[in-house]
Amino acid sequence: MAEKVTVIFPAYNEGSNIRGAVSPLISWRRADPANRNVIIVNDGSMDATVRNVSRDIAQTGWQRFLQRTFGTTNVRKEVELINSDPIFRRNMGKGAAFLAGARRARQLGAEILVTIDADVLDATPAKIDTMVRELRVSEKDMVIANAAEHKSADGKFPGSIPKWMVGDRAIRMVTLEPLFRGKPKWVNLIQGYGMEVALNDLIRKKVNSVVEFTHQPALRTGAIKIRQQREIVKTLNLKDERKFRADKLREKRKKRAGPRIMQTRK
Question: What is the four-CA torsion angle of 82, 44, 125, 2, rounded to 10 degrees?
């Protein structure tokens, strides 16, 4: 029996890329609509991100009511659109967008979660299937793809994106249960822009994929870029602080256990 797979796209101001990125995934979903879903998580975009995928999103709220009541037939459900901040629709960071998408995937009964950055240029069905297959046959809980930035207009090639920063992954949903239960260690690390760093630390059983995705060159500038960098550093510091405290706790336990072990031997 086929496992249920959901792909999530955390997106912030990706209006120029989102249509091309999502179109291949619509084909992927159509191959097995009973077991596949695609979710775009809008993280407070202020450009045309939402408008550019409006033809493909699953309608909700008032439009769904009109469909049920009056039988309108022009509503397509190829892709579902949600917001990382459903009330104020603020930019909450990639971690918050990932969490919102993962929670929705869980509601849809997903067993495998595939997260892909919205600036990916070649998220083909074959690549998605390969990552899912790698996860299924391995004994790991997460598969991390390779990634490189697309050649810029001036002909320069930025090269491969560091593995620890690659956002394109396939994850077993059961591994994320501590996050869904609100375990502080998970929630504190995931929030913000340090999502990749957090997942690397929290999910120990992982493997590299043979798949490589091509990304648009990073376009973040000004305040957004500074905020992203600060959030990543914050996550790294939290991770290091947590490790430091865990090591200290282990040392204390060893010291306390030492005399008792000696007394038992006597």
Answer: -30
